[in-house]
Write a structure and sequence with these properties.
The complex is a heterodimer of chains A (465) and B (543). Chain A has 465 residues and is α/β, with parallel strands linked by helices. Helix content of chain A is 32%, strand content 13%. Among the domains of chain B are: 47-185, no CATH class; 254-384 and 400-476, no CATH class. Chain B has 24 helices and eight strands. Classes of the chains: A alpha/beta (465), B mainly alpha (543). Chains A and B meet through strand 6, helix 5, helix 6 and helix 7 of A and helix 3, helix 6 and helix 7 of B.
Chain lengths: 465, 543
């Protein structure tokens, strides 16, 4: 199907979702609705500290036994039932499982701190520990936003974790060394996206007109400032970004989240705490899925835990030690300490827990309709990834990537691949191309990331050329 | 108490040319101008500055707590004052828009609120109102064109908000616009006139720089008046205002914030310890450790007007019942000054906040302690570690060794880690080995005596020490520690990295600090009195 359905028609009849008709629609430029192209979405959910797979002396507890086609039956039986990916078996036909993806650049001081900035940028970094390593290039979410979002709309950047910590957010980079601050509160994210949600149409009209008057004033001041010869190129770039942001506010509309989910989002008042972390992850997933459904944004990242995830997960009624300590197999962030009994099994259980959280996202995406496929998940590339390959020694040579959804049929799904330690830029090129990003000449994106990396896409996964 | 003499000495000789402001020291042998480093002409308010500014701008009785819902500032710099790294993207803009509407509504909720917003008397007419509001929001007099546009907006208000009293609607809409204006959200410095190779800031620009550096908020009425009257254009007038701001209680927040960020105090709230091994630990201890450090800094820097040496060596601290247990003391109930009766401790680096943050959950961590001191307090510029950093081998159950012995065997002399560890990192970290993972004193580790002796190259001279107090004393006598401290202050107050052209300024402050034990506050006056602070480099397009 190539004809874009009317947005209003699309929203009618969505079970369980309260709708308010978009009073702003008449104010918006036609281009904002993308009349011709199918809308596609991408979300990247990142877990940390590595996984338990056949690496670093650990047994294989993550991947299905065989590469090649995967099915629900195969992923949920035999030895595969003991692997973490069995948690996603119900979505087997919509998955692309990719193991052994390498992050290219050196990790001199701290594996966590230096892997994280590479993960979605495929770029080198400035090096160091804590928050000091900065990516030397933009991340793929910004590249997708540039292509698929309305002008000036930044990608959604979420983190379930504390603000003050040893290694904070590091997935999203708007440009070289420009870290994107992550939102910690699902409520703040929701409020920011809703704008005028739930207000009566007459009130909305007045608010829109008032905001337009204010924006005209602000826009004029920004343009006047931008014209000053004494400004540096960087200051002018910052003002251009600001100007885009103002324009973006005028492209907003209303589209309400399910009231029950609104209640759940509002219930989290201290989102940085350990005990609410899984709940915060789920609520961010609610907000992201809803934002895609309402076409408020087309790309999101969600970082679960700090760079060295210190969350003490509660799994099956048991409070685990800090995940980072489990991943070191000792009661310490360092290299020496009291051993944690059964640490490999605990790590495996955390892996399964992380994939159950990811499955929640897939369930949410699948709950929304699509104009093209069975549901919104079919329009997405929903990605789960870990920036490290294993517990000790925290290798970044074999990071795990899982893509769910076909991005509107652009991906061949239901397959398990061995990437054979090739680099992550190839995966990022593939995902971005699948959701519609193209180079200036219209060809598939094949050159994202550091120019020293081999270019290309996973041609055996992409259906588009 | 530090003699006032230092303050006089520090500022004596600052009687340069007054032409075009107060640029140039006029001191024999000094360069004509202390050349500033490159800086943005549009530093953005960070979230703390935003919160403080709207409180003062709208004359609110308390902070409205709006910025706490904003997406966090994330600059990647050591300090949050680097406004050139802060952008306005769609996420930040949505926050500003929402906050502007909320704040404008609160400031014009009724006539009483409106009167307070205008400082007690609402000007008559749209022009008077927008001029008064814009002057404070832009932190300078608005241009005629700006007044005209804002007055037109004021006139549209009754149409756009039909259910609101016309007396409130106009100011409300104007405030919404002002709070979203780039002239409010940034601190534009747009001067172009070059003098002595730099662009002196105009009086309003310098008033804002000074106010945001020292108070983290907009200028108050007295500073605005000094800008308007030309007082800031004279050296005496400028220095009088700088001293006034630095002696105001609002400077206390700045001193605390600087040390919090330099010493990474927030990390103390992540400290967790096993209650069996560390019965003194509780979640309440985290806050007590942070408050100990803050109270100590306030006492040394503000109350006593002392210098860097005291920060590194003062033989006392501020303890409450929680921290007193870590010190092994009894009889302390609420936060109070406790003098030490032995030479075990002295200064910031023997306080649990530093020691516990730089430790593992069970053991001290000499490598991280040593690295932090080298990087953050001595600015020693350690070379990067090798590509692969191997982990410390596990303990051999058959051989009892101290942590120092294990680290020495793995990274000390004769190993591949010798270059960095045995010369820079390990000696510093080992100085603190009498303090365990929580900062408790210990004479033995694993039943072996603790060895906290060592030698370290201070200012190219090898110095021997035994323990943390001696190390702190040696550090306090080193030029490197003083220079590093004031380099950080420069970066905090100037909101950018230090340029090499500013190193002579930092070295001058370091000398005064080390040789004369000058008070920190006195040298902060020097920093904000410098040409490098009051002018900008003529870069970035046509000056």
């Amino acid at each position: 199907m190539t004809t874009r359905l009317s947005r209003r028609l699309l929203l009618k009849g969505v079970g369980g979702v309260t709708l308010s008709f978009p009073a702003l629609e008449s104010l918006l430029p036609r281009a904002a609705w993308g009349q011709a192209a199918r809308k596609r979405f991408a979300i990247f959910v990142r877990a940390g500290n590595g996984i338990v797979q056949n690496s670093g002396g650990d047994p294989e507890r993550f991947w299905p036994e065989m590469t090649g086609p995967v099915t629900t039956a195969a992923m949920s039986s035999g030895a595969n039932a003991t692997r973490a990916t069995t948690e996603l078996s119900s979505y087997a036909s919509q998955l692309v499982l990719i193991k052994n993806v390498r992050l290219q650049f050196p990790r001199n001081a701290c594996g966590h701190a230096e892997a994280l900035p590479q993960l979605l940028t495929a770029a080198n970094h400035t090096g160091g520990t804590s928050n000091s390593p900065r990516a030397r290039g933009p991340s793929i979410d910004w590249r997708i936003a540039q292509s698929n979002n309305a002008a000036g709309t930044a990608p959604l950047t979420f983190m379930a974790g504390p603000r003050q910590t040893y290694i904070a957010e590091g997935l999203s980079w708007s440009a070289s060394e420009m870290r994107t601050p992550a939102e910690r509160s699902p409520l703040n994210a929701f409020m920011r996206l809703t704008g005028l949600a739930s207000a009566p149409p007459e009130v909305q009209r007045l608010v829109v007109e008032r905001r337009k008057s204010v924006n005209d004033f602000v826009r004029e001041q920004l343009r006047e400032l931008s014209g000053k010869a004494q400004l540096s190129a960087d200051d002018k770039r910052r003002l251009a970004l600001h100007l885009d942001a103002v324009r973006d506010t005028e492209l907003r509309m209303t589209c309400d989240l399910d009231p029950m989910q609104v209640t759940q989002v509002r219930a989290i008042t201290s989102p940085e705490g350990n005990d609410v972390r899984p709940e915060v992850v789920r609520r961010f997933m609610d907000v992201a899925a809803w934002a895609f459904h309402c076409q408020l944004n087309s790309v999101a990242t969600l970082q679960v835990g700090e760079g060295n995830d210190q969350t003490q997960y509660e799994i099956g009624g048991t409070r685990y030690p800090r995940f980072h300590w489990i991943s070191h197999r000792i009661n310490s962030d360092g290299s020496s300490g009291e051993p944690i009994p059964n640490a490999v099994e605990l790590h495996h259980q955390v892996d399964r827990f992380q994939l159950r959280l990811f499955k929640y996202l897939l369930d949410r995406l699948a709950s929304y309709p699509s104009a093209y496929g069975p549901n919104l998940l079919d329009d997405c590339a929903a990605v789960w990834v870990n920036d490290l390959g294993n517990g000790p020694p925290h290798s970044a040579d074999n990071t795990p990537w899982i893509i769910a959804g076909s991005a509107g049929g652009a991906l061949r799904t239901g397959v398990h691949l061995d990437h054979q330690r090739r680099t992550n830029n190839l995966v990022l090129n593939t995902i971005a191309s699948a959701v519609g990003v193209r180079k200036a000449d219209g060809s598939l994106l094949n050159d994202f990331g550091d120019p020293s990396l081999p270019q290309g896409v996973l041609s055996n996964v992409l259906t588009v050329t | 108490m530090r003699p006032l003499l230092f303050c006089v000495l520090a500022l004596a000789g600052c009687e340069g040319s007054l032409t075009g402001g107060v640029i140039g020291t006029g001191r024999p042998g000094d360069p004509a101008v202390e050349s500033p480093g490159p800086s943005s002409r549009l530093p953005r308010l960070n979230n703390v500055e935003y919160e403080n500014t709207v409180t003062d701008l709208l004359r609110l009785p308390a902070r409205p707590n709006v910025a706490s819902t904003f997406v966090a500032d994330s600059t990647g710099a050591r300090f949050d004052t680097n406004g050139a790294l802060l952008n306005v993207d769609s996420t930040v803009w949505a926050d500003y828009q929402r906050a502007a509407e909320q704040l404008a509504l609160a400031a014009t909720a009724d006539m009483a609120a409106l009167s307070r917003t205008f400082g007690g008397s609402v000007p008559a007419g749209a022009t008077g109102q927008v001029t008064a509001l814009a002057r404070r929001a832009f932190r300078r007099p608005p241009t005629d064109a700006e007044v005209m546009v804002l007055a037109a907006l004021h006139g549209q208000a009754t149409t756009l908000t039909p259910n609101v009293s016309p007396a409130l609607a106009g100011p409300r809409l104007v405030l919404e616009a002002l709070l979203q204006s780039p002239h409010f959200l940034y601190r534009p410095e747009l001067g172009t006139e070059v003098k002595l190779g730099v662009v002196p800031l105009d009086p309003y620009e310098v008033a804002s720089r000074l106010s945001y550096a020292v108070w983290r908020t907009m200028p108050d009425d007295a500073l605005f008046a000094a800008a308007a009257s030309g007082e800031l254009g004279t050296r005496e007038g400028y220095l009088a205002q700088a001293r006034r701001l630095l002696s105001d209680p609002r400077a206390s927040d700045t001193v605390t914030s600087f040390h919090d960020q330099l010493l990474q105090v927030q990390k103390v709230f992540d400290v967790t310890r096993n209650s069996t091994l560390f019965p003194e630990f509780s979640t309440a201890l985290r806050g007590s450790m942070a408050e100990e450090q803050r109270a100590f800094v306030r006492h040394v820097v503000l109350d006593q007007r002392e210098g860097v040496k005291s920060l590194l060596t003062a033989p006392y601290s501020f303890l409450d019942a929680n921290t007193a247990r870590v010190y092994g003391l009894t009889g302390v109930a609420t936060l109070s000054k406790v003098s030490f009766t032995d030479a075990r401790r002295g200064g910031l680096l023997t306080q649990p906040a530093f020691l516990a943050v730089n430790a593992t959950s069970t053991t001290s961590d000499p490598i991280h302690r040593g690295t932090f001191v080298n990087h953050s307090l001595l600015c020693s510029g350690l070379p990067p570690p090798p590509n692969v950093v191997p982990m410390l081998p596990p303990e051999d159950p058959m051989v009892v060794r101290t942590l120092r012995q294990r680290i020495d065997a793995f990274t000390g002399r004769g190993t591949c880690g010798e270059g960095c560890h045995s010369i820079f990192i390990n000696p510093v970290g080992f100085a603190y080995e009498h303090f365990d993972a929580l900062g408790r004193w210990r004479d033995t580790e694993r039943s072996l005596p603790v060895d906290a002796t060592g030698e370290f190259m201070f200012d190219e001279k090898l110095e021997r020490f035994a323990g943390a107090s001696e190390f702190g004393a040696k550090m306090a006598e080193s030029n490197a520690a003083h220079a590093c401290y004031f380099q950080h202050w420069l970066e905090y107050l100037y909101g950018r990295r230090m340029a090499e052209s500013e190193r002579p300024l930092v070295e001058r402050l370091a000398r005064q600090s080390r040789e004369n034990d000058a008070a920190v506050l006195t040298l902060l006056e020097e920093l904000v009195a410098s040409d490098a602070f009051r002018a900008r480099r003529a870069e970035g397009g046509t000056p």
